C-alpha cells in the first residue's frame, strides 16, 4: 500500500513503561494529518503494551487504518520486541473491532456495562495479539522508502 506514513512525535522513542506515545498518521502525499496511533508499555510487565488508534471519519474505509495498525504491530513486535499487545474498543465501534480482527488480533473478553461514557453505560471488547503471526511479515520488510514503518526504526 504505502499510502500512509507515521511519524514519531515524542522523545525518547517508545518503550518506557506507563507513558502513552502518540504517532501522527498522515497521508504520504501532502502530509495531511488523518489520525493517530498510540502505544503504552505496561509498567508491571514491560513486555506487554496496549495500543490505540483514531482515524478521521472521511479517511475511514480506505485501508489507512489497516496499514497503520499493521505497521504499529510490526514496530511493537519487531523493533521493541514486545511479547503481547492488547486493544480495547467500544462494542458499538464495529469498524474498530473489524480492523482489529483483520490485523489478526483475537477477541479475548467482552465486558458488559463496565464504562460510563457520554451519559450511558457501555460495553467494551478486548483484543490481544502475541505476535505469533507477525514473524514472517516483520522479517519480510524491505526497509525501502515504501515500508510504512521504516521511519520508526531509524
UniProtKB/TrEMBL annotation:
One of its GO terms (cellular component) is cytoplasm. Residues 1-123 form the N-acetyltransferase domain. It comes from the Bacteria. SUPFAM superfamilies: Acyl-CoA N-acyltransferases (Nat) (SSF55729). Pfam families: Acetyltransf_3. GO terms for molecular function: protein N-terminal-serine acetyltransferase activity; protein-N-terminal-alanine acetyltransferase activity. Signal peptide: none annotated. PANTHER family: RIBOSOMAL-PROTEIN-SERINE ACETYLTRANSFERASE. This is N-acetyltransferase domain-containing protein. It comes from uncultured Arthrobacter sp.
Amino acid at each position: 500500500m504505502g499510502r500512509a506514513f507515521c511519524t514519531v512525535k515524542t522523545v525518547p522513542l517508545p518503550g518506557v513503561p506507563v507513558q502513552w506515545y502518540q504517532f501522527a498518521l498522515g497521508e504520504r502525499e501532502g502530509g495531511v494529518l488523518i489520525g493517530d496511533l498510540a502505544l503504552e508499555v505496561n509498567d508491571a510487565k514491560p513486555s506487554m503494551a496496549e495500543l490505540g488508534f483514531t482515524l478521521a471519519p472521511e479517511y475511514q474505509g480506505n485501508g489507512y487504518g489497516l496499514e497503520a495498525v499493521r505497521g504499529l504491530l510490526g514496530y511493537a513486535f519487531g523493533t521493541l520486541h514486545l511479547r503481547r499487545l492488547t486493544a480495547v474498543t467500544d462494542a458499538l465501534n464495529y469498524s474498530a473491532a473489524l480492523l482489529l480482527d483483520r490485523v489478526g488480533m483475537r477477541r479475548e473478553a467482552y465486558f458488559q456495562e463496565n464504562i460510563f461514557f457520554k451519559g450511558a453505560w457501555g460495553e467494551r471488547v478486548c483484543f490481544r495479539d502475541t505476535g505469533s503471526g507477525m514473524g514472517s511479515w516483520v522479517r519480510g520488510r524491505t526497509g525501502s522508502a515504501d515500508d510504512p514503518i521504516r521511519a520508526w526504526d531509524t
